[in-house]
UniProtKB/TrEMBL annotation:
This is Aspartate-semialdehyde dehydrogenase. CDD domains: ASADH_C_arch_fung_like, ScASADH_like_N. The active site is at C161, H254. Pfam families: Semialdhyde_dh, Semialdhyde_dhC. It comes from Aminicella lysinilytica. Residues 9-141 form the Semialdehyde dehydrogenase NAD-binding domain. It comes from the Bacteria. GO terms for molecular function: aspartate-semialdehyde dehydrogenase activity; NAD binding; NADP binding; protein dimerization activity. Gene3D superfamilies: Dihydrodipicolinate Reductase, domain 2, NAD(P)-binding Rossmann-like Domain. The keyword Zinc-finger does not apply. The lineage of its organism: Bacteria, Bacillati, Bacillota, Clostridia, Peptostreptococcales. Belongs to the aspartate-semialdehyde dehydrogenase family. GO terms for biological process: methionine biosynthetic process; threonine biosynthetic process.
Amino acid sequence: MIQLDKKLRVGILGGTGMVGQRFISLLENHPWFQVTTIAASARSAGKTYQEAVSGRWKMQTPMPEFVKNIKVMDVSDIDAVADTVDFVFSAVDMTKDEIRAIEEAYARTETPVVSNNSAHRWTPDVPMVVPEINSDHYEIIKYQRERLGTKRGFIAVKPNCSIQGYVPALAAWKEFKPTELVITTYQAISGAGKTFEDWPEMVGNIIPYIGGEEEKSEQEPLKILGHIENDEIVKANGPRITCQCVRVPVLDGHTAAVFIDFEKKPSKLELIEKLNNFRGFPQEADLPSAPKQFIKYLEEDDRPQVALDVDYENGFGVTVGRLREDTVYDYKFIGLAHNTIRGAAGGGVLSAEALVAKGYITHK
């Protein structure tokens, strides 16, 4: 593992929301990163962090002591925030146009932005990365910097939480050439920034609609599986993916039920072996947050389960089970990932670690 002489100074944009809170929880005692700055809306600016989130702390663990007395800055005071940090995580709650503008503004101050937001996921020169799968896409940053006129600043994003339970399997099975997938995701309420206390309507309920999730679930895998051509990332031609996204009464953990066809017909044993042995850059570089085993296949008929498996590898790993032959498609399986760790803040932290290891994020 890389050893840094001193920790990098980190800012969290949108630090009072649920994803911002998850960033703060994950960064407590991080070996490389030190949260020095929290920025949020004008209504929170000037308050201590503890005051700003009073009655709204949504994590199941207590608020870390180190963050309680940090004075919240105004996220729109871009130069002032940028002066205090080496890079920022972005979890701001704004319109897509506002997010695109403010993230580019931070990047132009020579401050790298690692974003949890969807606004820049389809910007052609912005890498959208699952570090185990397509860390080579960070190479597009040199073209993005040319466009922005920066030497150090850039934007990198992580993909949507809904895809984390099945895209790793697609990457592990790449040599068998997946051609078509039919997917239903069963998504936790924390994906909407909610708990059961502030969304009691979800208790004992299912809502068969999550705005924008189906389009993201069908299209984002194709960018991840795509390639760099000239100065942009070109999405893959396949596989074809159709998806339904359902909100279920679960706090954390997105489950995916997947039917899949392959061009080459693998055996079940081959598929399981590829899952269990799949490794990527985080494992090779021994990044601080990297799961030792990214994907784990569970043999039991009733696994993976949210209650038993969502925290696999501290929420950074993915579990797969119930792989079996199907009567219409070649195979079907169940995948599970923690939506606010692997699928949100944790994916951002792991991406930042990969960007440090590859030399894109450094001390100012």
